[in-house]
Amino acid sequence: MKEAGIVKGSLALGSRECQNAQWRLDGLNRAAARADDLAYMRTIGFRSNILFAIAAAIGVIAALGRPWYGRAADPTDARMEDLFNGIGRAFTERGGTSGWAALATADTLLAGLALGTVVLLVLTLAPALQRHVQALARWTALATLGVVLVKLVDEPGSNAVSEPRHGILIALGAALVLVASTNTVAAAPQRRRAPVRPYVPPPPPVYEPDSSYGPPQF
Q: What pLDDT shows up at residue 153?
């Protein structure tokens, strides 16, 4: 009877009704991932965000050398068509006035805010200064973005004769990256450097004066 039960159990395991996900992989989903092979989402680290912010600040300053404004086309009765044509010219037209030449004092302010943000972010690498400069770096990054947005809406001179060019759009994208990276650095917890403890060797063993140690001597 015992051998008959074993044979019957093995036959039952060989039937299709018992072949479910508990015993083997599903026949319809052979590429199912194992429980220990799950993909994990990785985030950008503290120092990597600082590098991104430095690159974005360089992009903002470099964009000042590109055309920021150009001459607008003559308006027509189709306002929507004029709007989309203006957006197209902002990406395709290469001529125009650079940011250094078009902005009176905002160019120096913009470059100073971008450089100031970079300096403050570098100072966050020092644990003693991180808590004091994190919030200030966030505000300077937001101010950089604010200057670009103001100059995007309010062109120098009359808005009817000038329109944005690709230089200000590059500065806008770089300023957004600068704000995002700076906010991540500003939200990071304060890093504390653990003190280095000197190595203290353990005390030597204390032997009894009348005791013998080691293997027996013959």
A: 83
